[in-house]
Fold each of these.
Amino acid sequence: MICTSALKGLNPTHIELAKMESELQCFGKEAGAHIWVIAFPACGHILPLVDLTHQLLLRGLTVTILVTPKNLCYLNPLLSLHSPNVKTLVFPFPPHSPLPPGVEQMQDLPISFVPDIANALGKLYDPLFQWFQTHTSPPVAILSDILLSSWTTKLASHLNIPNISFIPFNVAAVSFWFDNLNNSGSFYREAFTASIQSRGLVFNSFKELEGVKLDMIKEKFTRNDRVWAVGPLLPVKAGDNGLNERGGPSSIPQDQVMAWLDSCKQNKSVVYVGFGSQITLTKQQMKAIASALEESGVRFIWAVKDPMKNVEVGGDDQSIIPNGFEDRVAGKGLVIKGWAPQVAILRHRAVGSYLTHCGWNSALEAILAGILLLAWPMQADHFHITKLLADEFGVAIRVCKGLKSIPDATKLARIFVDSTSMTQPERIRAMELKKNALNAIRKGGTSYQALDKLVEELSSNKIKIKRKRSSM
């Protein structure tokens, strides 16, 4: 049950999500099918797969998660909540020559290093095979990130168990990529092809948002119904401070951030600025955003990503806050250096708009909060997401585009001011989309049912393996 006092100060959405989480705790805890979870080491991939694992554990499955030492911290909320039904399998990160020594996470690298990270983890194939052979009750299936599919699908086949591919990108982008495999680089072509050939695909999306594209993937690529849209996935411990413990260190304590937002009397008056864990802004981009925030006079929270640790990779002209900016806007805004409690910020009643790169996880978090998006797509699937949310659903406003582009500060300042208006049509549509998202994850909703069917698929494989062993 939820303690009533714990809900004070939360907005209605936050309260409803907390209640949903509480209801899920009523699932049976008996040991179910044992599955193996293998994540790609980037925040935008690890965190939603951890959230999916959380849902599977709540539905009675047992899980072993492959992880390398420096990524173990992302599993702490899951381990504290679900022990002993979730265990870690910790292997040292294999050395790989193109990668800087000691790097185990994409947060410290540009996107061009994705193949190198995936290929490095592929060196664990033989050790994982040996671990499986010696386990007293080995997993009956693998749930792995799409970017690792080129070797996890082969591993699963070698072990005679299915591999199910988790896809933390939006369906529209994946449909486009699948349709253009011949134009992809060899790494992505191999990974996407292996994913299509896996037992099934799991998307962090929902039917009401991308149903047409989901049907297209079933009809054109997988040629079966084993495509599950299970989002928006709720964070582990969605109803309390656990949602603030998902990342690394922050320059401002979480309770101070929430207290500052509580002090904002007007609802939807705060602009949140953040570009996720992967995008690092140049000095000129930082200057343009700072000038726009200062000129607009709006209240704001700006999450500034730490510079990449490898200067030879990321350069030193990054994440530089203009001199004197923080002093000049004191009282009007907060600049958070490092990790920001983004989920909690977006769900706060005072926050009304979000300047974002339109990464998929960030977009879904904003959708669940009913936030107006100010879109600055930069790379990967960002452009597909912007098209979906700005052009098809009308819940986002295009602001800028491109990884190296620099917005006009005066125009951006005007957009910031307008985005705090309660009469913005995009805001009204965002609230409608939020209702659809909540309905999807509510008991009986499309995503809720998809999760149940995914668990049925995984559990049925446990039964098949038992039958095979009993007949030997």
Amino acid sequence: METLDITFDARHELTGEVGSVKCGLCAEAARGRMLDSGALTRGFGWDCPCGALGVHARLHDMDELYRDILEVWGLMPRDPDLSPPTPVGKSGFLSAVYVDGPALLRDLFAEARAQGAQVASTEVEVRLVVPGFSSRASIWTVLWARVPRQAE
């Protein structure tokens, strides 16, 4: 498994570049960058020379990231199909919805394929490096899509 260090300064601003990772579709080195789109703002993505785009996404956040991932990939965005919210008794919460991350990922990939994209996922071991703080490495899921180029 690949290992990637992402370094921040004391103000938690990215220093240097986001390292490259292997593309999930062609295994070439994909250049890393910080994203600035919707719920993915300050998240991480990778651009491969083959045209694939990789996005770091936590499965437990798929309900919030779903639409933005499709948009970053250059696909028609849509909201995921979720169960309707249900009241949470007298807890003070307005509603609760169970989010099945793996099922939403399968649905996201099916949607991307229906729009003509090739998709894959990979895992990368990532260590966030911040002055005065030492984090343990964590496993990140990177979701990849390559959309067919449109004839010009």
